Amino acid sequence: MHSFEAGRRGKPDELDGGIAHLIGAYFLGLDSNSRFDLRVSGGYLLDEDKPVVRLSGEVSGYLLEKKNIREEITEIVLEHYNKVHKTSLSPDEIKIEFEFKPQADALALNGNSGDSGNAIAVAYADGPKYLPWERFLTVRIRDIIDSIYQGNGKVPKSIAEETGIEKLEGLRADGKVEVDAVYLGAELKGIKNITIAIEHEKSLPVEELRDKTKSIISAHLAILEKEYRISFRNPNIVINANGAWNIGGWKADEGSREAKPYRDGFATYGVNEDSFSGEDPSKPSGTGTFLARYIAVQIVKRGMADFARVGLIYTIGGGEVELNVTTNWTGKLSQDEIENWVMENIPLSINGAIRAFGLRDAGLYRRIVEGSDFFHDPILPWNGETLDPGRYKHLASSQAYGSKGPQELRLTREGGNR
Predict the structure, then answer these.
(1) What is the number of domains present in the chain?
(2) Are residues 395 and 312 in the same domain?
(3) Could you tell me which residues come within 8 angstroms of residue 340 by beta carbon, excluding any fewer than 6 positions away?
(4) N or C: which end of the chain has fewer CB within 10 A?
(5) Distance CA 321, CA 316 (A)
(6) What is the pLDDT of residue 15?
């Protein structure tokens, strides 16, 4: 059994992660080679009746010398908070504490310095978007609930037609969804549990919330079963098991973008040591995982296996990247053959992934925050089925072309700092 949990956009950890990534986008907009490892911890000052956001971490020192940096970052934080919570707070109604530490210039100006990290990602041949079902369903259900909240209670049309429920008014921004899926090898044997927690207004009775939400989710599952010709085997759906939940967000919980790094990756298949949010692209937690995900998709898409778990281990200052692929006995080729194919065709360095995926683009960071997820949006390049080989050309030496020329480019394995 594999499980995945996704926070709604107003859940403290998720809100903090989004803010961290938006500030990262801000720094990349100032300098695409900037380095940062940001920490965001939100809370609420009850005596002042206002949110407080504590910003810390390491940032390229020269960036912190920019004029009006505090005002501009405050605007970023406030805009995101207001959007998520559907509020209209002014700068005077939120407190921002700045505790950034300047990173040494020798590191800050060196885009190749890298870091250590253990990146893990998986792909299923028969899963939607090659994703594990528990991850796909968790994020999909979370997004349905958030869309109803942001749409002032309007239920998506396809679901409304199935249930007769057109409105579910009274939701608030906090909450989370967890899905447990059971597999035999790469075959889904069913969804065991769907556990949902939703913050809501006192005007929305918890029994009504439970009844309507369960109908909405059950209808969506039925739609997916038809679309993918699969059976989820009547999962147990539990909503607000502890009863009414009328106070959430930073008023009820102190968040941290680093609190639950598995929300970014693939949960029970392996946990990264860091959250991806708020890190610059030279950090392997995020960039390595994007690359591992792309590799896993290529393996199952090309029919080498029905399931792939890809692990990449990076060591700071080291030239080698350790690769491990497991297939849960679904491989059509041996492990050695699959790993050799990967090393011959896909560059494994962090710098190679940065260039191939365009990870120094601030707009990419903002798009990730908008979707509040790293692996569902097909526009994000590591989720695409293929990449344009031309984007790799500058990564390979002239010897890598051999006698075949650039149209049949085969890439050599790259070290961590090349």
Answers:
(1) 3
(2) yes
(3) none
(4) N
(5) 10
(6) 96
Q: Is residue 414 part of a domain?
A: no
**Strand order from edge to edge, sheet including 95-103:** 36-45, 50-60, 95-103
Beta strands in 216-286 (DSSP E): 236-239
Looking at residue 263, its pLDDT comes to 76
pLDDT tens digits, 357-369: 999 999 999 999 9
Residue 413 resides in a domain: no
Do 376 and 351 lie in one domain? The reply is yes
Q: Which residues contact 390 (CB under 8 A, 6 or more apart)?
A: none
Residue 133, pLDDT > 90, answer yes
Q: Which residue range(s) make up the domain with 215?
A: 2-6+133-251
Q: Are strands 307-314 and 95-103 parallel, antiparallel or unpaired?
A: unpaired
Token readout for 153 is: 């209670």
Residue pLDDT, tens place only, 318-369: 667 899 999 999 999 999 999 999 999 998 988 889 999 999 999 999 999 9
Model's pTM, two decimal places? 0.90
290 burial level (CB within 10 Å; 0-12, 13-18, 19+): buried
From residue 377, alpha-carbon distances to 6, 20, 143, 186, 381 in Å are: 15, 20, 12, 23, 9
Query: What span, in angstroms and rounded, lies between the C-alpha atoms of 242 and 287?
Result: 38
**DSSP structure string for 1-70:** -EEEEEE-TTSHHHHHHHHHHHHHHHHHHH-TT--EEEEEEEEEETTTTEEEEEEEEEEEGGGGGSTTHH
Q: Do 300 and 130 contact (CB within 8 A), yes or no?
A: yes
Q: Which amino acid is at 276?
A: F
Q: How far apart are CA 330 and CA 299, in angstroms?
A: 11
Q: Which residue has the higher pLDDT, 43 or 113?
A: 43
Residues 194 and 323 in one domain: no
pLDDT at 413 over 80: no
Task: Quote the CA–CA distance of 372 and 377 in Å, as a whole number.
Answer: 10
The reply to whether 417 falls in a domain is: no
Strand pairing report for 307-314 and 117-124? antiparallel
- Please check whether residues 346 and 373 belong to one and the same domain: yes
